[in-house]
Amino acid sequence: MNIYDLTCEWKEHIPENLDEQLFELNSKTSILIQRVSNDKLRNKLDELQTAATKCNRSKNECEAETHYVAYSDIYEKLHEQLGYELRSLY
Question: How many CB atoms sit inside 10 A of residue 60's CB?
């Protein structure tokens, strides 16, 4: 189901149960990010989460797409760096 119309305005809000789940997952992600000891990586992960949150909270599809592009470019690279960081702790 599309939740936006041809004017790029959202037709309806995200369902309340999904919004609550998203909030819970964002909270857990914030806690996990703070556990990363590498300051540079932690800051970049925090920026990634902020960009993803902006995408989820966008006023319209066009704004969401802009935020999505911004964080999708760095998503893979940060996950690779996080994996390397975690493996170095074994």
Answer: 13
